[in-house]
Design brief:
Helices cover 33% and strands 26% of the residues. It folds into three domains: 2-179, 3-Layer(aba) Sandwich (Alpha-D-Glucose-1,6-Bisphosphate, Chain A, domain 3); 184-406, 3-Layer(aba) Sandwich (Alpha-D-Glucose-1,6-Bisphosphate, Chain A, domain 3); 408-541, Alpha-D-phosphohexomutase, C-terminal domain (TATA-Binding Protein). The mean pLDDT is 97. The protein has 542 residues and is of the alpha/beta class. Bound molecules: alpha-D-glucose-1-phosphate-6-vanadate (VG1) and cobalt (II) ion (CO). Cobalt (II) ion (CO) is lined by residues 112-113, 276-278, 280-281.
């Protein structure tokens, strides 16, 4: 039995950087999930009889939303749903499952690094058949549809038992509850030299992986402990919890502070890593050294050929615009293409599909490759382990050598959170208005060479994305970038990205905030951050 239910639009269902993210009570409004999912189905065509992959990061409301999604997929004519046991699928594992099973697409239920719980965040993202986040033309169509929707279809059937592996029927549709880990772990085993990593662990190498009570726990236990022989307990906080234990599952120096402290202590293990709510981000810390995500991207690209899956080299590297230029120097040396995209993984899909880029990354702790169409936290950890095993050196030595070869890009992001939306919009608006006048002027002793609002033309399909972040470039190659977050659920977050390139190894030993001091001051002055927001210091520095 299928019900066609009348509904009226919600006016706030505009997908952001990575899907629709709202507080749980917003999603719990009658019809809210249904409207959004129906709008997705109404915006794509050709799924009749096809497969839909569904899974989430296990946060509060995950199971309820999945049951609704299954019933709606059945009513709308999908042939099969594949769902991870317990409703779990990390974002990269969902991407892999879509690709491997030639699914029509997938629903990834996650608000990623945002906190979870009854009063916290939830999210829904649609991925297309290549396994990647829907591109802008689809997310825009979905948003348009949410504004006009007047009915949705749902099957009147019992809930599916998500905890039992196997096949069930939901009306005419088949539902397969699958092991969320196995296929993904096999993929990792195909890409990396597990024998070499296993020998490294066997000879006493120690690491800690903090799953932050989020989705990567079961993946890390299976891959690191079971398949690679790391000692039991290597994966910490490894049981996914609906509220992530009350923490933000955001693998940065603020929210993974315990790991950072451990890695800076005398008794530090050789390697520390963490991932976020949905498993697509990574934090990499060596003994006594934090590796910035931008540096990590450059290092992984420079050393990827040491892993079997990348033995033949890279076709190109892509990075989001705010990500530091460290990867550009690697691409230059390798003689391969470098692509600069707007923020958000959806912009990498075309480059990967077209074979223009092999490795992609963002300054927000996301790195990945053409093995899936999402960023992939454990993939980055495993590539690091493969490189450590192959080079037989510590993280610190590898990072220092890299800087000596390529120069060091000092880099930091300052976030101003919980800013009134109008104040934030006005700040960016005022910046845009004065862009033309900035070049040639001097701020805090720094001369501005160029300023613009980043616009991207996709080299594959020619689509244009404008207003992707204000860039102020200084003479000598330093820069600051300003943009508003598109993943938050309360107020606005202003992100300020600060970068300075230092070619001289004698200058590589500075503390990052110190090395960026004049640029940080200039950024504050150019944007009038303190005057406009009343905030003298950022909420989070990464
Ligand atoms: C942030 C990051 C961006 C990332 C996005 C989704 O977006 O800056 O690089 O792709 O989160 O990551 P924004 O618009 O808030 O700056 V995840 O791991 O939250 O899906
Ligand atoms: Co994430």
């Amino acid at each position: 039995m299928i019900s066609i239910v009348s509904t009226t639009p919600f006016n706030d269902q505009k997908p952001g950087t990575s899907g629709l993210r709202k507080k749980v009570p917003v999603f719990q409004q009658p019809g809210y999930v249904e409207n959004f999912i129906q709008s997705i189905f109404d915006s794509v065509a050709g799924y009749r009889g096809q497969t839909l992959v569904i899974g989430g990061d296990g946060r509060y409301f995950n199971r309820e939303a999945i049951q609704t999604a299954i019933k709606m997929a059945a009513a709308n004519g999908f042939g099969r749903v594949m769902v991870g046991r317990g409703g779990l699928l990390s974002t990269p594992a969902a991407s892999h499952l879509i690709r491997k099973n030639e699914a029509f697409g997938g629903l990834v239920l996650s608000a990623s690094h945002n906190p979870g719980g009854p009063a916290e965040d939830f999210g829904i993202k649609y991925n297309i058949g290549n396994g990647g986040p829907a591109p802008e033309k689809i997310t825009e169509a979905i948003y348009l549809r949410t504004q006009a929707i007047d009915r949705y279809a749902i099957a009147d059937i019992a809930d599916i038992d998500l905890d039992r592996l196997g096949t069930a029927k939901a009306g005419d549709m088949t539902v397969e509850v699958v092991d969320p880990v196995a296929d993904y772990a096999d993929l990792m085993e195909a890409l990396f030299d597990f024998d070499a990593i296993r020998s490294m662990f066997a000879s006493g190498f120690k690491m800690v992986f903090d799953a932050m009570h989020a989705v990567t726990g079961p993946y890390a236990v299976e891959i690191l402990e079971k398949r690679l022989g790391a000692e039991p307990g290597t994966a910490r906080n490894a049981v996914p919890l609906p509220d992530f234990g009350g923490h933000h599952p955001d693998p940065n120096l603020v929210h993974a502070h315990d790991l950072y402290e451990l890695m800076m202590s005398d008794g530090a293990p050789d390697f520390g890593a963490a991932s976020d709510g949905d498993g697509d981000r990574n934090l990499i810390i060596g003994k006594g050294v934090f590796v910035t995500p931008s540096d990590s991207l450059a290092l992984l690209a420079a050393n990827a050929h040491l892993a079997p899956g990348y033995r033949d080299g890279l076709k190109g590297i892509a990075r989001s615009m705010p990500t530091s230029g460290a990867a550009d120097r690697v691409a230059e040396r390798l003689g391969i293409g470098i692509y600069e995209t707007p923020t958000g993984w959806k912009f990498f899909g075309n480059l990967l599909d077209a074979g223009l880029a092999t490795i992609c990354g963002e300054e927000s702790a996301g790195t990945g490759s053409n093995h899936v169409r999402e960023k992939d936290g454990l993939w980055a950890v495993l590539l690091w382990l493969n490189i450590l095993a192959a080079r037989q050196q510590g993280v610190k030595d590898i990072v220092r050598e890299h800087w000596t070869t390529y120069g060091r890009n000092y880099y930091s992001r300052h976030d101003y959170e919980g800013v009134d939306a109008k104040v934030a919009d006005d700040l960016i608006g005022a910046l845009r208005a004065k862009l033309e006048k900035l070049p040639g002027t001097t701020v805090g002793g720094l001369k501005i060479a160029a300023a613009d609002d980043f616009s991207y033309t996709d080299p594959v399909d020619g689509s244009i994305s404008r207003n992707q972040g204000v860039r102020v470039l200084f003479e000598g190659g330093s820069r600051v970038v300003f943009r508003l977050s598109g993943t938050g659920t309360t107020g606005a977050t202003i992100r300020v990205y600060i970068e300075r390139f230092e070619p001289d190894p004698a200058g590589h030993g500075a503390e990052t905030q110190e090395a960026l001091r004049d640029l940080i001051a200039a950024a504050g002055e150019i944007a009038g951050i303190a005057e406009r927001t009343g905030m003298k210091v950022p909420s989070v520095i990464t």
